[in-house]
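Hey all, quick one. A colleague (J.T.) asked me to put the S-adenosylmethionine job into the tracker so the inputs and the structure tokens live in one place instead of scattered across chat threads. No bug as far as I know, just bookkeeping. Sequence used:
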Amino acid sequence: MIRLKEEEFTDIVKYMRQEYGINLEKKRVLIECRMTRVLERYGLDSFSGYLDMLHRDRSGEMAGEMVNRLTTNYTYFYREPDHFDRLQDAILPDLLEHVPSGVLDIWCAGCSTGEECYTLSMVLKEYRRSRNDACRARILATDISGEALEKAKKGVYPVKELEGLPPEWRRRYCGKTDGRTFGVEEDLKTCVRFQRRNLMEPARASEKFHIILCRNVMIYFDKSSRERLITTLEDALDKGGYLLIGHAELLTAKETRLEPVYPAVYRKKRE
Ligand SMILES: C[S@@+](CC[C@H](N)C(=O)[O-])C[C@H]1O[C@@H](n2cnc3c(N)ncnc32)[C@H](O)[C@@H]1O
């Protein structure tokens, strides 16, 4: 394994924080483990040589490769089920009462390999089934890791991942399996659009979302990046819209103008 010298470690930590908000201050060994093979592929035996190349690379390819290696993409289907139940019981009915077009815009920010946005797609289908409702949605699913997004677009997962889903959902939405892997139903994909996007960018004025899921992303950020992210998410929410964060990511009244409505769920005032 190629070891990091102190100034090389500081340089990588600074770069990842400035560019992507990710705090790697306590991840020295993780960086060494995950990056050694990348350095070897470039024929390098030190991080200094790699960092010189990275800072000179204008294509963005080396940065993209480092992000693929250093982000934590851990996710699974139906993670934090409380949110998906709450969506069906309270959030969707409330929004559909107030959104005249009946079309909901949803942003899955930090979608990783796609399990979260496909679970959401299943929830929307279940909602339509149970209520005979015409609820329609457009889901924008974004992440900074190009590699995670490629997996998400394919929508093919190890069969072990099926275990997290209710059995009838497996039957309805997880069709094709070759014994080792399964693919999510094509129908689940039609309302999802994937895009590589850095959450350190400000919100786009042309976009407003009725629901934003940004779960288990800000736990990896430092304080100032987290504040920046919260502002972006608030700006991107439509009036009356809901923000869902990870259950381990409490927002304080000081940090947000949004009102807490359920555990790890916040709403923007409608007025
Ligand atoms: C632990 S996963 C969470 C996935 C999913 N939201 C969930 O809760 O299961 C965190 C994701 O955030 C993404 N991420 C981290 N920093 C980001 C940034 N600056 N912009 C966009 N995505 C980022 C990572 O690439 C990773 O896929």
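Adding what we noticed when we looked at it: The pocket of S-adenosylmethionine is lined by residues 20-22, 71-75, 79, 110, 112, 116, 143-145, 148, 198-200, 215-217, 220, 246 (CB under 6 Å). DSSP finds ten helices and nine strands in the chain.
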